[in-house]
Amino acid sequence: MTVLEIILNKLKPQYMSESEVAGSDIYMHESVTFRQGNKYLINAQSGHGKSSLLNFIYGSSKRYEGHITFKEETLSGHEAVIFETQKLRTHIISYMFQELCLFPELTAMENVQLKNRLTNHKDNSEIESMLDMLLPSEKKGQPVGTLSIGQQQRVAAVRALCQPFKFLLLDEPFSHIDKENARLVANLIIQEVDAQGAGLIITSLDRSDAIPCDYILNL
Amino acid sequence: MLYKLQRKTLIPIQLTGYIVTLLVGVSIVLLAVQAYYDLRPVLTEQTGVFKAHTVTVSKNITIYKTVNKKNIYFDNKELKKIEQQPFIKNIACFNTATFNAKAAIRFEGQSMITDLFFESVPDEYLDVQSTEWQWDSTSGFLPVIIPEDYLNLYNFGFAESQSLPVISKNLLSQVTFNIIVEGNGKRKIYNSRIIGLSGKINSILVPDKFLKWANVEFGTQSTTSESHPSRLLLEFTDANDERIPHFIETNGLNINKAELEANKIVSLLRFVLIFVLVIAAIVITLSVSFIIMSFNLIIQKNRKLFVNLYQIGYTTSQIAKYYKWVISIITALDIIIAALLASFTRSIYLKKLTNIFEIDSNLIPVTISASVLIITILVTYNHIIHRIVSHTVKAD
């Protein structure tokens, strides 16, 4: 069993000055390690580059200084690995985007299936039972564009769970979800993360207590 | 799902526009290519020499000249003058035999002998293409070309009035006979056959190489002396040059006007075909550019969709696949339909043309051109679509 680590060296968004990131637990640090199996909460006010950090790790933005490396810890030691972008996005890291990136003309089920068919990680009945848990039944057949933001967030959360991953990145996952539903979503997430033995990096302003984390970092 | 998402991004009116313009453009190109191929005999071979605007000229024969025959020949000075005209590209002389020649044929035990004359022109001016048109000093076979008019004269004139059977070109070329060449106390007999009929050169022709050799061997010509030709082949840079008729007239030359006109028609026909081809090529280019632009527009309009697909893990190939397939299938079908359309149109004009020309042709040009078009256009599309998609989703 190998353990994946994400290591950040002197990372800083290009568009932020050094004084802006002073006092950060992550930016401009010599080395910060996220280890598979651990849960990390990243705290910050909005505009401090939380989404940017996740985008840097996910490879969807390159506008940073410093280095991000992936290392696999095996019995024989640490070994740097490079993942091809789409392999990273389908097998290594799953990402629930703050802007959700759903397809408004597709239904909730179709949105999740579109992601799931890349890896066939879940079967249809598993997907349906997850959606049943989080959405009113009459909403399942509607195009996602007609759902409330909170409902869309739940669909995006389910979609993020429908692939194999070693890290799950959640960007403000509960910003529009009430406490009860947040608990349901959090349970599903924790269940899947633990089942896959994955690491979790979550950024949150609200309900940061929904998922208990091992480490809390201030950005 | 991906199909459902991407299908909605296509705009039917754009696709229809593309299908129609491509169909028109490709049909015309294929038809023009096929027509050029079908009309090759007219445009090239039958008019062989004349493809470069060549005509035969001689001096006008007047009463005075019938007495003083010297005046029907062109001397060096005259040749030079003609050669220096700006509208003359090339000039070649007819060589005339200066020896005695007879043709002998055996028919039902009887042999018939007739006197003959020979002329020759440089091979490149011939309008008959044949592999048999060869001669060397060891060869016992002497190929002959006679004017097509001779056969017509026999078939429609002589045979008709004498109730004799008519002769086809094919049959004529199978008849073998002997040619007896005499002079300077020497005599030689050759096997011979008419290997072709010339529609343009009104003379009995033998290979140029043979005539030059035989004129020395049997004739009055020495290796060094120059013969003075009575007929010339003139190659014009442009048969439509207005100075030509004036020059011909003021210099007392005789030219076959129909030949000159035919040359003009052939040039015109060739020009029209090329013009049509160019226009059709432009239509195709526009139609291809149009669909590429439309596609670019589709991508820009649905940029978020494509970026999202890339974000959740779809590769550029997976994203581009649907568009590649749609455009490839539409284009291939369109070109195949255009090929059928062109073949159909061809069958119509062929009915008319076969009455005028002997057309020995097939549909290879349409098939090859259509296949080349399909391959070229599809490769281009697949490459460009992939590039546009890749560029869009990786923009950030």
Summarize the structure.
Chain A has 219 residues and is α/β, with parallel strands linked by helices. Chain A is built from 6 helices and 9 strands, in the order E-E-E-H-E-E-H-E-H-H-H-E-H-E-E.
User: Quick one: CATH class of chain A?
Assistant: Alpha Beta
Task: Identify the biggest protein-protein contact and residues per side.
Answer: A-B, 21 and 14 residues
CATH architecture of chain A: 3-Layer(aba) Sandwich
The number of strands of chain B is 11
* CA-based gyration radius of chain B: 31 Å
Largest sheet of chain B: 5 strands, mixed
Shape of chain B: elongated
Order of strands across the main sheet of chain A: 6-7-8-3-9
Counted by DSSP, the helix tally of chain B is 13
CATH topology of chain A: Rossmann fold
**Strand arrangement, major sheet of chain B:** 5-4-8-9-7
What is the H/E string of chain A?
EEEHEEHEHHHEHEE
Low-confidence stretches of chain B: 45-52
- Intertermini distance of chain B: 26 Å
